[in-house]
Amino acid sequence: MSAQLIDSHCHLDRLDLKPFNNDISNALEKARQHDVKAMLNVCIDLEHFTDVLGIAEAHADIYASVGVHPNETDGQDPSVDELVVLADNEKIIAIGETGLDYFRTTGDDLEWQRTRFKNHIEASKQTKKPLIIHMREATEDTLKIMQTEHAEQAGGVMHCFAEDWETAQRALDLGFYISFSGIVTFKNALALKDVAKKVPLDKMLVETDSPYLAPVPYRGKSNQPAYVKNVAEYIAELRNESYEHIAEKTTDNFYRLFLKQGEKPGKTQ
Predict the structure, then answer these.
(1) What is d(CA 230, CA 239) in angstroms, rounded to the nearest whole number?
(2) How far apart are CA 269 and CA 78, in angstroms?
(3) CATH number attached to the domain at 5-258
(4) CB 239 within 8 A of CB 249
(5) DSSP 3-state assignment of 47?
(6) Residue 269 class from Cβ within 10 Å (0-12 exposed, 13-18 middle, 19+ buried)?
(7) What is the gyration radius of the CA atoms in the chain, in angstroms?
(8) How far, CA to CA in Å, does 51 sit from each of 32, 223, 237, 238, 267?
(9) What is the pTM assigned to this prediction?
(10) How many other β-carbons are positioned within 10 Å of the β-carbon of residue 261?
(11) How far, in Å, CA of 85 to CA of 36, rounded?
(12) Which single residue of 58, 66, 118, 188 has CA 20 to 30 Å from 91?
């Protein structure tokens, strides 16, 4: 069996489909041609949740999440109960993305953002569906809330990780996975490259966060799930391991975290 990858975090409802004749099926086919066998379509606001879920329901190899991004200020801010109800669907395998972002959202009082994060953690614990955590320039508050709200009971992933090894260790100590995006391929991301070398392979995921953060050599262009292969290949080179090994392990990790399966379906010994 050829190497299989999973794009553990993408926004398919927001892809630039012009290069694909405005047809998402063409974008998905390109991803599959680049070893991407499954994708997690991540929700960032409830106003587009129906679109996010609809894409997942239309494709057997696509899953979805439910949540509201910490930077979203204009739409619905869901209660714990609302998140739990929306998550009651077999195609919804995660809560988020959620977390804290003090870079794009600033102000003297961001308690609303912290409350939203806590609500997502509680919904995750109730549904037993893992968290997808966004953290930007809010490291201490994010990790503190994860600890005080017992996020380790739900588990999850630090999506699009861009911090140093010390921060990665603290997240790993809480049982969270570390997911690498195209940022790891950027020339100036030296601390992140060090993290990619050190993270235990059984705690690693790969993602695109498409249509954002395209990896080298596509940096500055619209990202797409097919490019997760570039991320995996780059990490393999950093770690002096084979691409096939990185693909196998990160795929297994995805199924273990999100679908509670120890290994990917169809895997033979």
Answers:
(1) 14
(2) 44
(3) 3.20.20.140
(4) no
(5) helix
(6) exposed
(7) 17
(8) 21, 19, 37, 37, 32
(9) 0.95
(10) 13
(11) 30
(12) 118
